[in-house]
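Suppose a classmate hands you a notebook page containing two proteins, each written out with its sequence and a corresponding row of structure tokens. How would you begin to make sense of it? This section walks through that situation. The first entry is reproduced here exactly as it would appear on such a page.
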Amino acid sequence: MKTIADFLSVADAIPITGHDNPWAIRNPLDEARDLHKMVRCGSCSVAEIRDLIAVPKLVEEALLAYAERYPKDGQQIYCVLQFRERVANEFERLIQSDPMLTEYQQGSAQEQTNSDLLVN
């Protein structure tokens, strides 16, 4: 099965005008910033946002199969999937550069390690 990378390179621009792609209404960085704010405010956890951004593998495979079968719709599907991928990359970059969240993640990882040690 082909992946998004097989159809579009990471350097390909995502059209942001409604005429080119009515689904891509935002810049991936703006979307990631808003999601990052939700984490900073405590509305959602990092894991919840990652799940929100991610496209489940079976769904992605189905969309790519459909796009391959119906090329007229394919470009829009590829653009939306690539948009989600870029949002995920920008979100991870923001999380890694945020000292408050980096400390939280390190603390969570340490707690997980400690709890693993307690289980027989």
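The notebook's second entry, a different protein, reads as follows.
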Amino acid sequence: MTSHGKSPSLRRRPSLSPGTAMTIPWTRKGVVSMPSVQPWYGTTTSLLLVEAIASIVSCLEWLNLLQEEEAMLVATVESLTQLHE
């Protein structure tokens, strides 16, 4: 019962006995030791990777838009110079 106050997941599940609440969430993820640290670390790392990938994709989309804008500006300048001549 001393581990009952340490882990927040045990406090969220009052209907389960302390033994089942301790084994269900962590053994399903394959975590054996340090159940209160490793799932948090893995989840945070996954979220950081997802955010980094989303940022990279966003930057690539912006670069693509800038290239399209540059091509349109070049075409506009070329057509204006042809009209001026």
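A careful reader of the second entry would note: Residues 38-84 form the longest helix (47 residues).
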